[in-house]
Design a protein that fits this description.
This protein has 390 residues and is an alpha/beta fold. Helix content is 61%, strand content 14%. Helix 1 packs antiparallel against helix 4 and helix 2 runs parallel beside helix 6.
């Protein structure tokens, strides 16, 4: 079987709804980021709080990433095309890497300035009470945005949106640090404001590194989480007709999970029954595991995980030509059906002959033995089962 995913119309509808939801959540967050960023920078400057100014820059960096997320969301939800048969989900992944790099750059700038001020005590600032109040407001606002964005990210299975949510929470955490730093400075320890700024920078850098690490795993096709893979495995094994499962592989593309697998079925069932079993597995994964959007199923008659033992065996046309030469004296070349089974490095043959053949060969047992002996003279043939029908 080949690769199967949702039909194009359904996928397009899902992508459109997903994009609209991402856009709504991100726009709400961007408004809050803009207002908080301007407020914190302005109040931090007026109240002489370096930590609050740093926190304001962090908020504005959130605003910048919000716009990047909006751009990426628009393009990552485009339908698959000839050049991108698996869709455009990796745009989200690349964007997340970009967000991580931006955070690290911002963190370096904030940390460098704070260290410079600590080394030159005359540059240390003395924040006022208004800085403390704004920092508290920021904690409440950014934690609210985090919870709102996280809920949407889980619902939409968007790592990019989840990254943006954590970007917001990092701002809330940094604001808590600012509260501590400003409070300490107001109590007569001005260096605490600079220390708080450094702590904010470290937290921002860590978030950036985590985003880059997680997205890099996706870019190199790291498998899904072990618990998700185990859920997929249980769903597959639960399908009637599946004898075994091997070579289960998975990867992510944006918010989607792509799966390909090898199923082992009874080697003597029909091709159509094997296809039906594989198609049932595909449908079950798409219906029961939300994040799975594409499944490729390969049907195996035996376990070939360590390599196929039948690689050197001839295909049908070559084998039939050899068999016809072997059976030339028996005059059974008018066989109505020859079914080949490629198993354990050998060929097992089911041969169906018309009853009319028995007019020329009344001794049925002798005929069958002769057919088997002639066929087994070929080194690739393991067994022959002969039957007759009108």
């Amino acid at each position: 079987m080949g690769s199967h995913s949702m039909n194009s119309t359904a996928q397009a509808t899902v992508n459109t709804l997903r994009y609209r939801e991402v856009r709504k959540v991100t726009l709400i967050g961007s408004v809050v980021d803009f207002l908080l960023g301007v407020l914190k920078i302005l109040v931090g400057w007026l109240a002489h709080s370096q930590a609050l100014v740093a926190d304001g820059i962090h908020s504005l960096s959130d605003l910048a990433t919000d716009f990047i997320v909006l751009y990426a969301a628009k393009h990552s939800h485009r339908e698959a095309d000839e050049d991108h048969p698996y869709g455009h989900g990796r745009i989200e992944t690349l964007t997340t890497v970009g967000l991580g790099i931006a955070l690290i750059v911002v963190a370096f700038g904030i940390g460098y300035d704070a260290v410079r001020r600590m080394n030159e005590t005359g540059l240390l600032l003395h924040p006022g009470a208004i800085a403390l109040a704004v920092a508290v407001v920021s904690v409440i606002a950014k934690e609210s945005i985090y919870q709102y964005t996280k809920h949407a990210a889980v619902k939409l299975r968007s790592n990019m949106l989840m990254a943006n949510a954590w970007h917001s929470r990092s701002d809330a955490i940094s604001s808590i640090v600012v509260v501590i730093g400003v409070g300490g400075a107001m109590m007569g320890y001005p260096y605490l404001d600079a220390v708080a700024a450094i702590a904010v920078a470290v937290m921002i850098a860590k978030i950036g590194i985590d985003l880059i690490r997680a997205s890099s795993k996706e870019l190199i096709d790291t498998a899904l989480e072990p618990d998700v893979v185990e859920t997929i495995r249980k769903e597959i094994i639960g399908v009637d007709g599946v004898r075994a499962l091997h070579m289960l592989r998975s990867r992510r593309s944006g918010g989607d999970a792509l799966v390909d697998l090898h199923l082992q079925v009874d080697p003597r069932i029909s091709v159509s029954e094997g296809h039906q079993i594989g198609d049932t597995v595909r449908r079950r994964l798409l219906e029961r595991i939300d994040e799975v959007t594409d499944v490729t199923v390969h049907i195996d008659p035996e376990d070939d995980e360590q390599g196929s033992a039948c690689d050197q065996l001839p295909l049908r046309s070559d084998l039939i030509e050899k068999l016809q030469r072997q059976w030339a004296d028996l005059e059974v070349v008018d066989a109505e059906q020859v079914t080949l089974h490629y198993l354990r490095g050998k060929l097992q043959i089911d041969l169906v002959l018309p009853l009319a053949v028995l007019d020329k060969h009344p001794d049925t047992r002798s005929l069958i033995l002769s057919i088997e002996k002639a066929a087994k003279a070929l080194p690739e043939v393991d067994s022959v089962v002969v039957s007759f029908r009108p």
